[in-house]
Design the sequence.
C-alpha cells in the first residue's frame, strides 16, 4: 500500500471526532498535542547516544527512583506541549511529586480534561538502545471547570478514562490508543514525520505462549505466582511457554498484544503492592487491554475498578490474553 492511500493519525482523529460528541474538538486537540510531543521525544530518543542525554540526571523522583536524563526531558516535552497548547486543565506525572494546575482557556473553552502520564517508560533501557515508551491516560475532570484542579480530578477509577494510549519508541515508533471504541495503532514514517494507521482494531489473541515477568525476583514472589510459573514451564499440551521480558512495560505489552501472552508484575516480599503505578501505568494499559479483548487484574480484582487513594499508588499487575490471565488468577486464588 502506498503512503498516499493510508490514513494519517491526523485524519483519523478528525474522522472520529463526531463519534464522541465532543463538538468543541477539545479531545482532538489534546490527542494532537500528544502526537506532536511524541515526535519530539522520538527525535531525542533517536539521537540519545550522540547528544549527551543518556545516563542519570542526578536526582530521584518522588517514588525513590533515580531519574535518567531522558525521564526529565520527556517529562518537560510532554508538559510543555500539553500546557502551552492549552488542551488540559491539569497534568499528573510519574516524575512530579504533585499534580500541575493549568489555567487554560484553549480556543475560548474552559478545558475539562486532565492527563496522567508516564513520560518515559522503561528508562533502564535508554542507555542500551532497547525500546522505551510513553504512557498516557485522559479523564474528564470531576470538579467545576474554571476552578483550580483538585486531587480528586486525578484519583478516578480507570473505568472513567476517556482515552488512553502509549507511544513505543522501538525499531519503529508507534502510537497505540483507544477512546473506548477499540484500539488502533499508527506507525511513524520518520522521513515525513507522519503517523499512518498501520494496525487497525488491534486484538489480543485469547490465548498465547509468551509469559513476561522479571523472574530474577522469583524467590520473593507469592506462592500463586510461583506455581503459575511452574505451570508455564511444564511440558504438557502447548507448554512449556516462551519467556520474554524486555523490562519496558510498553514494549512487553505491545509484543504480547500482537502475539498473545501475559505480563505479570506481582507483589513481592518487600513491596506488597508490586512496582507499577496504578494511575500512570496500570490503568491506561488495562483500558487498552480490555478494549483489545484482553484482561487486566491485580491477580484478584479488575484493575479499572480499583478506587485510587494516592497519586503515585502502586499495584500488582497481571495483564494480557484472557485465558492466560484467568489461569494465573486461578493459581492466585488457590494460594491466597
Ligand atoms: P519506568 O521506567 O517508567 O519507571 O517504568 C519501569 C517499569 C516498567 O516499564 C517495567 O516493566 C518495569 O518497571 C521493570 O521493572 P524491573 O526492572 O523490576 O523488572
Ligand atoms: Mn521511573
Ligand atoms: Mn513506567
Ligand atoms: Mn517512567
Sequence:
Amino acid at each position: 500500500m502506498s503512503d498516499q492511500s493510508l490514513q494519517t493519525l491526523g485524519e483519523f482523529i478528525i474522522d472520529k471526532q463526531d463519534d464522541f460528541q465532543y463538538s468543541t474538538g477539545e479531545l482532538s486537540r489534546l490527542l494532537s498535542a500528544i502526537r506532536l510531543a511524541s515526535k519530539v521525544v522520538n527525535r531525542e530518543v533517536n539521537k540519545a547516544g550522540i547528544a549527551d542525554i543518556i545516563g542519570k540526571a542526578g536526582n530521584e523522583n518522588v517514588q525513590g527512583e533515580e531519574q535518567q536524563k531522558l525521564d526529565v526531558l520527556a517529562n518537560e516535552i510532554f508538559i510543555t506541549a500539553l500546557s502551552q497548547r492549552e488542551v488540559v486543565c491539569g497534568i499528573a506525572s510519574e516524575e512530579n511529586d504533585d499534580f500541575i494546575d493549568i489555567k487554560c482557556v484553549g480556543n475560548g473553552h474552559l478545558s475539562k480534561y486532565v492527563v496522567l502520564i508516564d513520560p518515559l517508560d522503561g528508562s533502564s533501557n535508554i542507555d542500551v538502545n532497547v525500546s522505551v515508551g510513553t504512557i498516557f491516560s485522559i479523564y474528564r475532570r470531576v470538579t467545576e471547570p474554571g476552578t483550580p484542579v483538585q486531587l480528586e480530578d486525578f484519583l478516578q477509577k480507570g473505568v472513567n478514562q476517556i482515552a488512553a494510549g502509549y507511544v513505543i519508541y522501538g525499531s519503529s515508533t508507534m502510537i497505540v490508543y483507544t477512546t473506548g471504541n477499540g484500539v488502533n495503532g499508527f506507525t511513524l514514517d520518520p522521513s515525513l514525520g507522519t503517523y499512518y494507521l498501520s494496525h487497525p482494531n488491534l486484538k489480543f489473541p485469547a490465548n498465547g505462549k509468551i509469559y513476561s515477568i522479571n523472574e530474577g525476583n522469583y524467590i520473593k514472589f507469592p506462592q500463586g505466582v510461583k506455581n503459575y510459573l511452574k505451570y508455564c514451564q511444564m511440558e504438557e499440551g502447548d507448554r512449556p511457554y516462551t519467556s520474554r521480558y524486555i523490562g519496558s512495560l510498553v514494549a512487553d505489552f505491545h509484543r504480547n498484544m500482537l502475539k498473545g501472552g501475559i505480563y505479570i508484575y506481582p507483589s513481592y516480599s518487600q513491596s506488597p503492592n508490586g512496582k507499577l503505578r496504578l494511575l500512570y501505568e496500570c490503568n491506561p494499559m488495562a483500558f487498552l487491554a480490555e478494549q483489545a479483548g484482553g484482561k487486566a487484574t491485580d491477580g484478584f480484582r479488575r484493575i479499572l475498578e480499583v478506587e485510587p487513594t494516592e497519586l503515585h499508588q502502586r499495584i500488582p499487575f497481571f495483564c494480557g490474553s484472557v485465558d492466560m490471565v484467568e489461569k494465573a488468577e486461578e493459581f492466585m486464588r488457590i494460594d491466597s
Q: What stands out?
A: The radius of gyration is 19 Å.
